[in-house]
């Protein structure tokens, strides 16, 4: 059985959790939503519509690194839904998992706003969407990154991700 370290990344509302769960099911892997790894202080900031900065994100990235470190030691697989908006965040994640694959889900801001307006029960509020786009460093020339535009149906996005992951892995 192949071992996978996969991060499904993108701005809020891009479908990270949905695609991550489906990927995990398809490859027989575990799934974690990195939102569940945020320290309390980060969650409270986001609930109050305060954008996180790099210092806020470091403990969160350390937790993600710890998960991948553990997964590799056990020779198993993991899919994590994680924004990973900046290259230095992705590089930090790569530091614990050299064979990590990033699946970047992207779309235009109007599509994301439309999706976010339909969400309930999530601490990322619609008014924080612009800060996510401002922070995003699009991973166009990075190794082991798959960029997938999200206007297609979920099944097509999943199929494309699975095909591209197999090409890389």
Automatic annotation (TrEMBL):
<protein>
    <recommendedName>
        <fullName>Gluconokinase</fullName>
        <ecNumber>2.7.1.12</ecNumber>
    </recommendedName>
</protein>
<keyword id="KW-0418">Kinase</keyword>
<comment type="similarity">
    <text>Belongs to the gluconokinase GntK/GntV family.</text>
</comment>
<keyword id="KW-0067">ATP-binding</keyword>
<dbReference type="InterPro" id="IPR006001">
    <property type="entry name" value="Therm_gnt_kin"/>
</dbReference>
<keyword id="KW-0808">Transferase</keyword>
<dbReference type="Pfam" id="PF01202">
    <property type="entry name" value="SKI"/>
</dbReference>
<comment type="pathway">
    <text>Carbohydrate acid metabolism.</text>
</comment>
<dbReference type="InterPro" id="IPR027417">
    <property type="entry name" value="P-loop_NTPase"/>
</dbReference>
<keyword id="KW-0547">Nucleotide-binding</keyword>
<dbReference type="InterPro" id="IPR031322">
    <property type="entry name" value="Shikimate/glucono_kinase"/>
</dbReference>
